[in-house]
Amino acid sequence: MPSSSGKQYAMVRSLEESPFGPSSDQSRYSKYAKRIVRDVLNLRPGENLTIEAWEHELPFAKEIKLQARKIGANVLLYIEDDANYFKLAEGGFEKNLGRMGKHEWSLLENSDAYVFFPGPSDARRQSRLESKKRKAAQAYNFEWYKRASKAGVRGARIRTAYATPSRAKMLGFDSQKWRENLLNAIEVDFRKIDGLGKKLAFLFKHGNNVKIKAPGGTSLRMDLSGVPPHLYSGVMSKPPGYNVFACVMNIPGSELDIVPKANSVEGTVFFDRPVFDGGNRIEGLKWKFQKGMLVDYSARKNLTFFKKGYEQAKGDKDKVGVLALGLSPKLEYGYNSDMHVEGSLTIGIGSLGEGDKNKTDYQFVATLSKATLTLDDTKVLEDGKLLRV
User: Fold this and answer.
1) Mean pLDDT over residues 133-148, rounded?
2) Domains of the chain by residue range
3) Which superfamily does 15-187 belong to?
4) Which residues are 80's β-sheet partners?
5) SS3 45
6) pTM value?
7) Rounded average pLDDT over 24-48
């Protein structure tokens, strides 16, 4: 049931459209499923695992089910499908999609771990639904996270589910290359990423001043807020407890989130990576900050798509909420995962960040791939390369 919390991702029209074989072909997912069950979720004998999968990801979901049962976990797998989703969402029954019964809540609250393969697969068709219909169909979302967090659920959102032909066509990607990159990024040592992330978190926790330089005119400085950085390494030995959404981690999608003092941000940042707003590609986005406020912005292409949402938003939309360091060593740029690529630097404005004070429901993130970041006297990033500090 959980949707991605504030970050834009998405969704094969049918099983037959999958470029990865029929639904019975699950063996190719064995090594990835083992990583998720053992290294990400740290699943133990006797624990209860719930898997929620949209039909296009059934082969992968079945392999996770198999690997979990091999170690002695109790597993329940249930399926969502595009056909019924669109019959309801387009037929005026979207509110029925947005409700959960007490049997579903009971299942969630009695799960030790939860694996979610998002959907629907037909992102283009879903994008044509009215905004109010999409919101109504996910009305349960915050309550789901609230209950999952309270229950101590260790969750993993498997992002291969987003790399479908429909979504790829909308974004201009090669769906097979996109999916293969996501799969490769699961075949990593998550504990090594966790160890590196903890060292970086310690460094930023005790740091004060950040300076950022990058090609294209980026020169930005800020002070840190004192809020401990939040690490999403891919290891879920226990829920990190940062907020209600932190109980579900993106796999792949390792990052370290750092919160600056909002009023300390000064300078200009040019994002060399494109930003996707739905199916629209914004290129060459540039922001200028004074006394922590976004005072000017421009873009080389499709500025309208940023401007419209930004100008309609209210509250602290113009303040920086988060710096995010990408920590995923096998992810590649170019497949809507830029903020998780190792060495990337992402800046988010609005209601992003861990423990910030921004009061708004607006959020927007953009990424640099060649940033040099200095924390006090320590260089952490150099030309987009993460230094082992």
Assistant:
1) 95
2) 15-187, 192-386
3) Thermophilic metalloprotease (M29) (3.40.1830.10)
4) 54
5) coil
6) 0.90
7) 94
